[in-house]
Amino acid sequence: MELRARDLSHEPVIVQIEDLVVETAGKTRFPVLKGVSLNIRRGETVCLVGESGSGKSVTSLATMGLLPKDALVVRSGTIRLKGENLLALSPSAMKDRRARDLAMIFQEPMTALNPVMKVGAQITEVLDLHSRMGTAEKRARVIDIMEQVHLPDVQRIYDSYPHQLSGGQRQRIMIAMALILEPALLIADEPTTALDVTTQKQILSLIAELQEKHGTAVLFITHDMGVVAEIADRVCVMRHGEILESGPIREVLEQPKHVYTRALLGSVPSLVPREARDDASGASVIAARNLGKTYHTGSFLGKKSQVRASFGVNFDLSPGRTLGIVGESGSGKTTVARSIMRLIEPTEGQILLDGDDIAHLSPSAMKPKRKKLQVVFQDPFRSLNPRWTIARSMTEGPLNYGMSRADALAEAKRLLKIVSLPEDALGRYPHQFSGGQRQRIAIARAVMLKPDVLVADEAVSALDVSVQAQVLDLLAELQRQTGIAIIFITHDLRVAAQICDEVLVMKRGEVVEQGPASRVLHQPQHDYTRALIDAAPGRFWDFAAGKPLVA
Amino acid sequence: MTNIDRSAADKPLALRLLSMVSPAQTGLAPFIAAIMLLAVILLTIFSPQIATHDPLAMDPLMRLKPPSEAHLLGTDGYGRDLFSRMILGGRISLLIGICAAVVALGLGVLIGLVAGYFRLADAIIMRAMDALMAMPSILIAIGLVALNGPSIGSVIMAITIPEVPRVVRLVRSVVLTAREEPYVEAAMALGSSTPKILFQHLLPNTMAPMIVQGTYIIASAILTEALLSFLGAGISTEIPTWGNIMAEGRQYFRINPGIILWPGLLLTICVLSINLIGDAARDALDPRMKKRQA
Q: Do B182 and A341 touch (CB under 8 A)?
């Protein structure tokens, strides 16, 4: 795999955006896009990269003519599609262009599909609205496009509902719907972000294949530098509504000109695992013995069935070390985390906390143990009670264990300083902070009780890459200072490679491979681990160094 | 865009509620409704001062008189002043409405929290609630009043009990979604006790829908009270309420229709205003509804 280096200068320009300025509607005009210019040629993929709030999605929505009317307004600039200014078109003419020449696919294919309509009918509907074909001809056309997106067993899927398909299959359906009218431009807004890496890889190569076949121009929006390295011909780096830098992929990755681009590339964690730290103490603070959880479903009189969400999990973790649990969605890694936290009761095995089995303790017997086990969740917008001040959230734990309010507040102040937040944060509410700040608050809250073990369940997955780097640094620093043991659940091999001493790879509830991170991620033994590493986007490129990775 | 939504939803409850009676925000209807309701409430609160006659004093010589200077709205079958009786009657009606709402919400929230949080309790409680909802509420009310005798307390109870299952269902559904939030799990991990999680983390989530539901319960309780009184199953006729004034006026409708029409008009204004305010509260507390109107 290599960076793309195709010469497309002879191809006609399909989309030309010039000096596009978008502001918020209403009295106080706040600029959202400050003069964005870019063009895309036939058959070319242009990647818009940037962190959240950079204006990537607004650019794509403006191009589609789908800006929310009462919130955002185009002030100046032009968007030309094959020479025609889209901004001057009437709403009905724009609707027609949207159908014929523009298509868009979104991040979450489940919400973009109608849940009560068969997918075949949904694709056919596009043809119903925008073409005049006979029923048989339409069906043939739909089947054809479904085959082109490599859906298996097309006849069956034609008559399936969206919930009967996997995430990857649903995204294929979305792509089929987008491409059936052979649009000139396809806008893909984070189309693979919600998918597992192995599925992501397939979808990316599918988009590339169809682009080759139909000569579609693609505007690909992503925050993931790895994905960019896989598919882009050219890259535009956005921040605060401006394009800071744009150019051919190789140029931007090898010699980034802008400071921000360099910082962005520098914070992409490397896939090369760091060396494991010495296991000095040897004694394990937490251990699992044959841990498993089976869910029994079925109603009182109905058919009973059981799902083994996880089984046969064994590990030993000593203070100051980090264990990574890696796997795709549905692999059971979160079930393991929740079992260890005793948010659910495991059905088999033991959890040894300082040698005591806590797997089946009652809530009251569990209470003194909870102090030693804390958790940080994925979504910082939901893990803090929105109605509580930061002070109240942070002191909740210590107050439960009998610390005085004054002491708890003093401790909260001290920890806020450690996580680099201002002291006055205590009186504020979660919505007044950014995602990264909230995640740091959540971490501070978790260490308020001075736990021995911290479970981080996808704790950096919802964060932008530069913020992600800060939070990972913070965790490492806390670990160095307090000797806390961390169980880090993640689907991101890059993150796992950077912070874990040991890694446990899970698939469908089962541990398939386990060992030091440097061995598992560097010389994987199991096929599945190998497939996961193979699928990691941009694995051939060292972003921080700006050169191909030599294995 | 999401940021805009979020900031609207994060505004303190009181602020969002205040915005609903500002005409600039929601149009004129809730504003007028609030004024009308306020007028009715003031009229009933100060009824002893405003009343032109003793509402209970009978005057056999003045039976069924049409409106005159002495009797603003005329008199009823016992020669009592209709206007004075009507504004005093509003007191009981409103009192019953508010009490029924408070009691129904209190009970409903408690039961709903338990049902939403504990899976085992849920199965039992919700079946009981289903059973209660399957019975016609007016029959339950009549039965309860017949059992306990016609006092204000028993009427309030009779009106409250059929309302409870509706509140329980609402609270339970809110709790079912809120308990899956990571901040609730984080609270468990921090060692918070179950009552603390129930009352400090989950209860506040139910406030907005409860305020809205409360206004509907007040309106429906006032109507039910009137209906019970009208059917003769309500509070004893010595204490005037809108319902029993109308019930008594039934037989004199041809002679003095005002006995039914005036309390009926006040009742209509009251219930309509409360419903309009309830609608406005629902819109003010749900940013999505507001967006739809814009």
A: no
